Amino acid sequence: MxxxxxxxxxxxxxxxxxxxxxxxxxxxxxxxxxxxxxPKEFGGGKKTYFGQYIEEHxxxxxxxxxxxxxxxKGEAIKNHYEKIDWCDAILVVNHDKRGVAGYIGGNTLIxxxxxxYLKKKIYILHQVSSQLSYxxxxxxxxxxILNGNLHVSEV
Length: 155
Known about the structure:
This protein is α/β, with parallel strands linked by helices. It has a single domain, classed as Rossmann fold. The chain is built from five helices and seven strands; from the N terminus they run βαβββααβαβαβ. Strands 2-1-5-6-7 form a five-stranded parallel sheet, sandwiched between helices. α3 runs parallel beside α4. The termini are close together.
């Protein structure tokens, strides 16, 4: 099966481990482009993570609507949508983040929506937190909750 992994960049290590595990079982797997080579104005010559860079440089409101960072963020989002179009299914890696078990952030939510629209299977690694105000939207897209088990016959 062709699988695209979705999830917060905070789960980078877990996403890579999940990819390796799925590939051991014969799946083709794509993951998010979690880091991009930083342009000159962002320090150049090193990898940068959008969220981390933004937090370290004054927060979201420090970057006006036309700022180059938003072009780069948009490119990364589009790139991942193309991976969702390519796959048979997405797998959402949703570990604990900031005290929220089964965390799914805004970007991952819209990736789930794209997969739903494209009629892709949607797998979610752990139960979705009831602390998320949009849990009902996620559940309405009929995901298969794996309860941490990647060794099911469907995946």
